[in-house]
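Discrete fold record:
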Amino acid sequence: MKRDFQAPGRSPVYAREAAAATSHPLATSAALEVLQEGGNAVDAAIAAVAVQCVVEPHMTGIGGDCFAIVMEPDGRLTGFNGSGAAPRAATPEKLAELGVKEITETSPHAVTVPGAVRAWETLLKAHGTRDFKTLFKRAVQYAREGFAVAPRVAFDWAKDVDKLAADPISAARYLIDGAAPSVGTILKYPHLADTLETIGEKGSDAFYFGKIAEDIVAALQARGGLMTLDDLASCHTTAVSPVMRDYRGYTIAELPPNGQGIIALVILGILEHFDLASMDPLGPERFHLEMEASRIAYAVRDKFVTDPGYMDVCHSRLIGEDYIAELAKQVSLEKRAEVTPDTTLAPQTDTVYLTVVDKDGLAVSFINSLFSDFGSGIVAPESGVLLHCRGMSFKAEAGHANSIDGGKRPLHTIIPAMVLKDGAPWLSFGVMGGQYQACGHAHLMTNIIDYGMDVQAAIDFPRMFFDLDSHTLQAEKLIPPSTIEGLRALGHEVEPVKGPIGGSQAIMIDKARHMLTAGSDPRKDGSAAGY
């Protein structure tokens, strides 16, 4: 598909040496600066995400979790699971004793151990060439000297006033006279600047031990939380082998559970049973298939996917051809399935995704998250650490795949990905948007593989998802009316979505031409850049 230069849009970025794509321009600039000073892709990714933890505080932070895949120039892959576990005392029995029947996003019980900082250090030790102090330079600068609020950041922030106002510390730190900051407002976070400098000087142990850890635990325990210093001290990053499955001659690599990357492979496996390329990419038939495959796959997720130590089946069985074929039989081209699979998770979550490829061909697919807007809304006051709420994925009562338990990691929606072609690096990509991410991976892949779109066109292309409770389809405004009517004729309920669906970045790797092609989602403030 060729770009219409009379229509709004942006071109992909073509670069010969290195490229970075993030959801915020200051983060992309930080990544490019590191690359041009001789750092590699992992160094650049850490510099970029540290900036995002300052300038996109509703989306990510050092009080969140992280997942990454690193791809060597020869196609070798290593995955990193930087998600933290529930406090050891957080069992269904203990929550029942406390009268907790549901883990809400602002509950102290929604705060699992933040794994991001440990994961960053683990990544640097395994693949990086720079230290935290060097890489945090721009993040510390923006936190101490100030940064301007970007348009999409301001748009999101305005929706979170009530949540932030409910806690006096978060209100003081993130609201201005009780209101969200407007576009261009200059914000400073001196407490966070001090914390980043301390971690830069002393490493990740400064976060998980000592004054910062004490500040985090005190903030949670003051609200009835069960986190202890021992819980923080036991935080570790797990190196994992990505799970791979072919789709029409391309090998898609996702991280294994406790993330939902396996579900992206299930969706693609189902879609491979149908001739998508013969369908209009904006037509009702294509979206019908994508939504039906996703509804089935998400039911599989909610039934099985959790901390792998607690799963009833091996994740490899979920992408076995026999199982995928059985799931594909449930999809009718003629109508929406009558049976609505049960779902258990809230649909709205917030995350940042970025990808970097350096001059040597090292690539990193990297995602860092607070889960909901501003995470739990709980701020550790002295350190300025805003804590995530990933534990709201847990069920408070026993008997579910995702029931809470001490030391257990919750189901994660955040999923970086890589693609190989003939065993060689081909694409580093990810999609933000909480629950949407597995569906978003399938949407992006089919845009590129089945419909021949370049990375930017594939990212720009209109999206659709379904409400996880009602299964009503939610369509972005550029979905044609004829497609919506066609979907209704197939039995779907369709409504306009209230805001843009997710975000995405991607870098395509053409080793033969020594060319990188990068794209960044216009639904966010960010950009792709290279040289």
Notes: Residues 86 and 506 are 32 Å apart (CA to CA).
